Amino acid sequence: MVYQAVHAGYEQQQTAYASVSLVFFVLVLAVSLIQRFLTREKD
User: Fold this and answer.
1) pLDDT in tens, 18-43
2) Residue 15 neighbours by CB under 8 Å, 6+ apart
3) How many CB atoms lie within 10 A of CB 30?
4) Neighbouring C-alpha atoms within 13 Å toward the C-beta of 35
5) What gap in Å lies between CA 17 and CA 13, rounded to an integer?
6) Measuring CA to CA, how many Å separate 21 from each of 1, 34, 42?
Protein backbone atom coordinates (compact mmCIF):
# COMPACT_ATOMS: atom_id res chain seq x y z
CA MET A 1 0.00 0.00 0.00
CA VAL A 2 2.72 2.46 0.93
CA TYR A 3 4.81 1.44 -2.06
CA GLN A 4 1.85 1.97 -4.36
CA ALA A 5 1.22 5.44 -2.90
CA VAL A 6 4.86 6.46 -3.26
CA HIS A 7 5.10 4.98 -6.74
CA ALA A 8 1.93 6.70 -7.92
CA GLY A 9 2.96 9.97 -6.31
CA TYR A 10 6.48 10.27 -7.60
CA GLU A 11 6.37 8.38 -10.90
CA GLN A 12 3.11 9.85 -12.16
CA GLN A 13 3.45 13.27 -10.50
CA GLN A 14 0.25 12.86 -8.48
CA THR A 15 0.90 15.09 -5.50
CA ALA A 16 -2.13 13.81 -3.56
CA TYR A 17 -0.65 10.32 -3.24
CA ALA A 18 2.79 11.72 -2.46
CA SER A 19 1.42 13.92 0.31
CA VAL A 20 -0.58 11.02 1.78
CA SER A 21 2.55 8.89 1.93
CA LEU A 22 4.47 11.75 3.53
CA VAL A 23 1.76 12.29 6.16
CA PHE A 24 1.69 8.53 6.86
CA PHE A 25 5.48 8.52 7.32
CA VAL A 26 5.38 11.50 9.70
CA LEU A 27 2.54 9.88 11.67
CA VAL A 28 4.47 6.62 12.10
CA LEU A 29 7.60 8.55 13.07
CA ALA A 30 5.71 10.58 15.68
CA VAL A 31 4.08 7.49 17.19
CA SER A 32 7.40 5.67 17.42
CA LEU A 33 9.11 8.67 19.04
CA ILE A 34 6.31 9.05 21.57
CA GLN A 35 6.44 5.33 22.34
CA ARG A 36 10.22 5.50 22.78
CA PHE A 37 9.86 8.50 25.08
CA LEU A 38 7.21 6.83 27.22
CA THR A 39 9.01 3.49 27.52
CA ARG A 40 12.53 4.74 28.17
CA GLU A 41 14.30 3.61 31.30
CA LYS A 42 14.43 6.14 34.06
CA ASP A 43 17.73 6.54 35.88
Assistant:
1) 677 788 889 999 999 999 999 987 76
2) 9
3) 10
4) 6
5) 9
6) 9, 20, 34
